[in-house]
């Protein structure tokens, strides 16, 4: 396990080659605050591309493990590239001052209120003005800063789409207020909560109460995960939490694997093409990540359609192909395949002919189209 985390750290150094630092003059705080910015390796090469943003409190020690996990996941195509912002709180007293709350009403107070305003009114606008960001924002923290990020949930319209709370030392009333907010959520929302089995009772019991109350809220729009890590402490539970949190939030981004296929797709009686379309629409509309349909995912659905004899769905697959690869032969090929399977070789031949004049993609090429044309023409003559 230690080797895995060392690998993640090493990857973070290389993949986030555009790691840089900035000092933001804050009117709210009355001082400069240092931040670390990690830009994806592809940032300069893709001037039109926008990226989700991950904001880290306790950025001094959370930046490297988070950037390593993101780099590793994006290398294998399981996580999207993203911009990572680490807020420096490198003095013990500073992070406590930033998280100051009123112990009576359980809300940010004095320096804590200023820090809350700094993030929402100064940091986020600064980042979104300077960098190409998508609307999807995540925030993470550990201990008291993990508790602090929940205050953004109290707003009428939360600033963040995803929250990663690592062993939070919850503020008063938070185990009740957060679930109350969950019950009112009207848009897809992500929340990750973790705790160590070795955490002290003062921290562990409120977290367990929060978990129970969140389950009672039972809002299907809330994508929620709770982890208890055995044989860990308040500090060592952070490392296994990070990949779990990121893979939970970006689960739909991952290429179709055997678990997704068996548990969600193969059990369907119909609507296989719709499932594929919805998967990529969710990436775009919910996660703010726009990528063309992976050809591996496309072939998984196409093969299942053929296996289930659901040939009419190949028409929908043609539409998906034309949207994501408009210059390729994919759309026309799918129409040809549909007509072939439905016993109309003459019209299928015409579609394959159209496809042969377009750009090859994946295992589809002109030679295959010419073979299909000959095959369909021969079948058409036999059926006259």
From TrEMBL:
Superkingdom of origin organism: Bacteria
InterPro entries the record matches: AB_hydrolase_fold (IPR029058), Esterase-like (IPR000801), Mycobacterial_A85_antigen (IPR050583), TPR-like_helical_dom_sf (IPR011990)
One matching Pfam family: Esterase
Protein's UniProt keywords contain Phosphoprotein: no
Signal peptide: 1-17
Record-level Gene Ontology MF annotations: kinase activity
Keywords (A to Z) from UniProt: Kinase, Signal, Transferase
Protein name: Histidine kinase
């Amino acid at each position: 396990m230690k080797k895995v985390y060392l690998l993640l750290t090493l990857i973070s150094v290389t993949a986030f080659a555009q790691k840089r630092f900035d000092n933001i003059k804050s009117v709210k705080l009355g001082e400069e605050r240092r931040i670390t910015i990690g830009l994806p390796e592809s940032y300069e090469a893709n001037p039109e591309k926008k990226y989700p943003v991950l904001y880290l409190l306790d950025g001094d020690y959370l930046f490297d493990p988070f950037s390593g996990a993101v780099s590793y996941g994006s290398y294998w195509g399981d996580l999207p590239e993203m911009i990572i912002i680490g807020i420096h709180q490198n003095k013990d007293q500073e992070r406590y001052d930033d998280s100051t709350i009123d112990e009576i009403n359980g809300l940010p107070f004095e320096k804590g209120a200023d820090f809350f305003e700094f993030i929402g009114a100064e940091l986020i606008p600064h980042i979104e003005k300077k960098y190409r960001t998508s609307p999807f924002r995540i925030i993470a923290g550990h201990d008291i800063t993990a508790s602090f990020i929940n205050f953004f949930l109290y707003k009428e319209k939360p600033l963040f789409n995803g929250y990663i709370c690592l062993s939070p030392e919850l503020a008063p009333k938070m185990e009740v207020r957060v679930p109350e907010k969950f019950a009112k959520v009207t848009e897809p929302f992500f929340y990750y909560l973790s705790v160590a089995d070795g955490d002290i009772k003062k921290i562990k019991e409120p977290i367990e109460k929060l978990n129970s109350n969140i389950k009672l809220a039972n809002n299907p729009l809330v994508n929620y995960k709770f982890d208890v890590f055995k044989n860990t402490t308040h500090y060592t539970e952070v490392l296994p939490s990070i990949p779990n949190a990121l893979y939970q939030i970006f689960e739909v981004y991952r290429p179709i694997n055997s678990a997704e296929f068996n548990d969600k797709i193969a059990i369907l009686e119909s609507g296989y093409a719709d499932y594929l379309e919805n998967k990529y629409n969710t990436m775009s509309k919910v996660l703010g990540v726009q990528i063309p349909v992976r050809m591996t995912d496309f072939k998984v659905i196409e093969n299942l359609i053929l296996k289930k004899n659901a040939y009419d769905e190949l028409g929908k697959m043609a539409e998906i192909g034309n949207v994501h690869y408009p210059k390729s032969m994919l759309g026309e090929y799918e129409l040809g395949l549909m007509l072939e399977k439905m016993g109309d070789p003459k019209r299928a031949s015409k579609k394959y002919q159209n496809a042969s004049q377009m750009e090859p993609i994946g295992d589809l090429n002109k030679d295959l189209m010419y073979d299909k044309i000959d095959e369909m023409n021969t079948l058409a003559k036999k059926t006259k």
